[in-house]
Amino acid sequence: MLDYRREAARYDALRGGEPRAAAAAQAVLSLVPPGARDLLDVACGTGIVTRRLATGRQGLRVTGADLTEEMARHAVSRLPGAVVLADGRRLPFRDGAFDAVASVWLLHLLGRPEDVAAAVAECARVLRPGGTYITTVDKAAAHNVGSDIDAVLASRPRRAAPDAAADVAAYAAARGLLPAGGTRFPGRGQGRSPRRAVTDLRRGWFTTLPPGDPRADAYADRLAALPDQDRPRPEPWFTLRAFRKAER
To answer: Domain holding 62: CATH number?
Structure first.
């Protein structure tokens, strides 16, 4: 996994910046019920999406939570007084505190199924009855856009996706969360070029090929041999799923 303490300063620049944040926030807000008053953004990172959630709908109070102090520090600069340090598996909020909860680009980082289940359970716990939980699913699959880069990387070691849509739906159902729609949004500015793919490989983006692994060098060599080294390939499209908490 990437070291998000070291990634914080360059996180936004490497992931599409404001255009990507705008697409994500618009998609999340499209699934938040009109009457929602309080929204919790779990794993808010630098707050670049969270700020847009807060300004994107009048009357919606938004709180951000992130585990990494360096990321949260950036978020605080964007939303003073509205960000807390917290683990998504142990949220420091009372039961039913929020009308909506979002966890964008979180579940895929939680390697063990029990951790994903715990995060979904916590999001459900702090959600009021009738409230909506919104989360990204199948994130790794979104990055496979059928490009020549994907062809090179197709044989790399794989692991089961912790945020597989069917598994997330099962964890949600176990906590009284019922399917309530979904949408997709583009990862603006995230179309990889071969050169960028090599950089991502070297810094540990592909978790099954950690830096220093001799297999990573072979993939880097093959990526470096592709044409148009600086031409971005198509952008990924991310998937959001919404779940509604059953009324008591």
So the answer is: 3.40.50.150
For CA atoms 117, 120, 94, 21, the dihedral sign is: positive
CA dihedral angle for residue 11, residue 207, residue 65, residue 77, rounded to 10 degrees? -10
Give the pairing type, strands 38-42 and 98-103. parallel
pLDDT, tens digit, 9 for 90 and up, residues 217-232: 999 999 999 999 999 9
E strand intervals along the chain = 38-42, 61-66, 83-85, 98-103, 127-137, 177-186, 237-245
Q: Which CA distances in Å does 82 have to 40, 192, 234?
A: 10, 33, 35
pLDDT tens for each residue of 160-209 = 899 999 999 999 999 999 999 999 999 999 999 999 999 989 887 887 88
> In terms of residue numbers, what domain contains 108?
4-140+160-191+235-245
pTM, entire model: 0.93
Local structure of residue 216 (DSSP, 8 states) = H
